[in-house]
Amino acid sequence: MHRNHEDKLDSFDGDTRDIASLAAYVALDDMFGDNMSLECPDLTNAQITEAIKAYKDAMDALDYRISIMDKFDEKCSQAATLIEAQNAHTEYAEYAGMVQGYNTATAYDQIAPTDSALLDAYYELYDAVNGYIFKVDGVTAYTRQAKELYNLAVTLGFEFDDAVKQQVASLQTQDAELETFLREAAILQILKIFASDDPDDAQKKEELESNFDVSALMPNYFLYNEAQTDRDMEKNSSGLWRIKRGTNTTAIPGWTLDYSSGNWYPIATRMNEGDALAWDLDGHAFAGGVRCGSSTKGSLSTVVAGLPQAYYWVGMNVHDNASGLTLGIKSGSVDIVSDKYAKSNGYRELGFDSILVVGDLTVTATQTSGSSGSEIDFRNFIVRLCGADPEYDYAGALTAQEAKVAGMMTFADAAMAMTDVKYFNLSGVMIADPKPGDIVIRKITLSNGAVVTDKVLIK
Helices 23-35 and 2-10: crossing angle, nearest 10°? Predict the structure, then answer.
């Protein structure tokens, strides 16, 4: 008993955090000194049991305090790494909040406060760090579709005005109206190239017919998810959070998940591939993927509307170490389901080539069987152009699409109108009247409800 006690105290000799001043350390050290003269033959069994319990409780109390301090230090280290990162988003208000939280935490005395007070300080830092991480994750998830649609349209030759360019560049949340406009602009360019008889467009047409990636035209093709605990999630028998069984249309926007056995988990790109997410917070959007657990059956499906009539390669990027996965495609007269794919040990693309899409395209991935230890990670779905339909009237479709896009051109200027501007110092405190020379965080509210933050020098 004394030996274990002494070893516990000695284990902190090299610690630089003044562990010896902790109340829990002092209590254990005093107990050690008070009981050194006690001999077991002099004690009753009840007294020995009581002394052992007292020792154990004292050592557990010290271990618990050290564990809080370790978590506190780890979170400080994480905050420092994020603050000093070259790609840090210093323009976000959450960044200023994290800096303020870090400065408060590094000045905090970890020795004198109670365990409860130290935990409160830890969670304040935890919230500040996670607030920044979740902001970055959310911006990535919510703006990816619009940014990739913009890049697709530009690559195809559409020329946007400055208002649209600015709106895309400053985007920090999802903007359905903007996404719709960008999508229709990209489709316009595809129709324009396919309808053209100009020899100068021959190379562009050849590129479009060579597996040209238009996945951005598919809703949420990269499978970001925003599952919420009460609405979408439940714990399985192993204590892991999974998407609720049944039919779900909210966890993965744009997609329908339908299953009755096994587990489907949300996963995130910043997690190790295949790891199930420990789901403990609501309202957090993650930028990609869903995992089908072992012994699971179910389907994941979406409908892609408005694709230009043409031939496409349609498929998915998956890591499938389970047999029983199939892919189904429906469009016009096409209604096919693949044979069960043989399992693999890495990510690969699975799909159908030269599918003639006429009208809506329905894509369904189904896990029809599974066994223990067999899992599937869906990373993203894929749509590639591989040929024009020689029987289709692209010129007529182009005329209709030009009128459609022209009617949407005025929304961007109205959306960019500012309705409110606030300023904050780099510690996150609001400033009513910033002075020339101040470097501040500017928070702009636009007329479409979007909020844009940036870091500016007041002139």
Answer: 140
Please report, for residues 85, 130, 146, 322, 425, the alpha-carbon distance to residue 95 in angstroms, rounded to integers and kept in the order given. 12, 10, 24, 42, 11
Q: Using an 8 Å Cβ cutoff, are 369 and 297 in contact?
A: yes
- Against a cut of 0.85, is the pTM above it? no
Compute the distance between CA of residue 133 and CA of residue 453 in angstroms, rounded to an integer. Answer: 16
First to last CA, the chain: 70
DSSP assigned state of 316: E
183 phi, psi to nearest 5 deg:
-65, -45
3-state secondary structure of 314: strand
Whether 201 and 193 have beta carbons less than 8 Å apart is answered as yes
Q: For strand 241-243 and strand 246-248, is the pairing parallel, antiparallel, or unpaired?
A: unpaired
- Residue type at 338? S
Q: Does residue 326 contact residue 339 with C-beta atoms inside 8 Å?
A: yes
Domain segments of the chain: what residues?
A: 2-131, 229-388, 417-457
Alpha carbon of residue 170 to chain centroid: 19
d(CA 314, CA 354): 8
Q: Tens of pLDDT along 154-180? A: 999 999 988 888 888 888 888 899 999
Instruction: Tell me the pLDDT band of 110, cut-offs 50, 70 and 90.
Output: confident
Percent of the chain scoring above 70 in pLDDT = 80
Q: Is the torsion defined by CA of 307, 308, 311, 312 positive or negative?
A: negative
Composition of the chain by helix, strand, coil, percent to 5: 40, 25, 35
Q: Which CB contacts under 8 angstroms, 24+ apart, belong to 110-119? A: 110/17, 110/69, 110/72, 111/17, 111/18, 111/21, 111/22, 115/64, 115/65, 115/68, 118/65, 118/68, 118/69, 118/72, 119/68
Q: What integer pLDDT is reported at residue 239 of this predicted model?
A: 77
For the chain, the C-alpha Rg in angstroms (whole number) is: 29
CATH of the domain spanning 229-388, picked from 3.40.50.1460, 3.20.20.70, 2.60.120.260, 3.30.450.20: 2.60.120.260
Are 255 and 301 a contacting pair, CB within 8 Å?
yes
Alpha-carbon distances, residue 247 vs 233, 323, 369 (angstroms): 12, 23, 18
